[in-house]
Amino acid sequence: MFNFSEFLDYVQNSKWLFTFDISATVFGVVGYFFVPSDKIKLLKWTLIILFLLLIVSGGSYFFNGIHNLKAEFESIEEPEYNYKIEYPNYFKVEYYEPDSVHLIAKDKKASITISAKQYNTDVPSDFSIESAYLEHNNQNKVLELGSLKNKGWYVIAYESADTFYYQKCIAGDHIAKKFVFSFPLSQREYYNNTNANADIDYVDYIENSFRNLE
Questions:
Q1: Each residue of 34-88: pLDDT tens digit?
Q2: Which DSSP string corresponds to 60-128?
Q3: Largest CB tally within 10 Å, which of 32, 98, 131, 183?
């Protein structure tokens, strides 16, 4: 469904398109009031061409969606549980507590969930790699790096149904924290683009930003 506010964000964040829109509008207004009547026909065809160019350029929004935006990043720092993380600025914080944060993308398809918990001796079971598998049926492990026992952190990526999950957990000093970044497999090329020519791999960027404050 078309969302005008998302389209407006897209236009405003696409600087060349935004400049084009403003220029065409100014040109049209000035032309309407100041162009002599014998030049109106030329003006009309010029405006038609500009309008067609706008449709073509704007069509990329409908084809590729809001993810044409080149995101800037915002951050969360939580001293109580000693972590920080950066996330794309088109994600909205839907819920925030020091030990539980939920962010969701504008298209409502991708989300980032952050959890934290204090413990005495053993890392809580819900922060283990095993728990990530148990939470989902028919999961396929894609990647596993590190370990809480040897490195104090791990990264795991896996698929479940039509969704891709990427999880990082850090534990130490009696605090365990993790984030889970999930998005449809259809958006993996955008979020997890490992192409050397890609502007950014969002999964990699967010994973590297999730760390201790100290």
A1: 656 555 666 666 666 766 665 555 544 443 444 555 678 999 999 999 999 999 9
A2: HHHHHGGGGS---EEEEEETTTTEEEEEETTEEEEEEETTEEEEEETTSS-EEEEEEEE-SSSPPGGGS
A3: 183
18 alpha carbon, distance to own chain's centre = 21
Query: From CA 162, how far away is CA 176, in angstroms rounded?
Result: 28
Tell me the pTM: 0.68
Express each pLDDT in 113-169 by its tens digit: 999 999 998 999 999 887 777 766 556 777 888 888 788 999 999 888 899 999 999
pLDDT at position 62: 41
- DSSP code for 35: S
**DSSP code at position 214:** -
Q: Which residue has better confidence, 57 or 97?
A: 97
Q: Which residues have CB under 8 Å from 111's CB, separation 6+? A: 91, 102, 103, 104, 105, 181, 182, 183
- φ/ψ (deg, to 5) at 78: -125, 95
What is the C-alpha separation between 169 and 181, in angstroms, rounded?
12
Rounded (5°) CA angle 134-137-141: 75
Q: Tell me the residue type at 119.
A: Y
Helix axis angle, 15-34 to 4-13, nearest 10°:
100
Task: Compute the half-sphere exposure of residue 23: CA atoms within 13 Å on the CB side of its CA.
Answer: 10
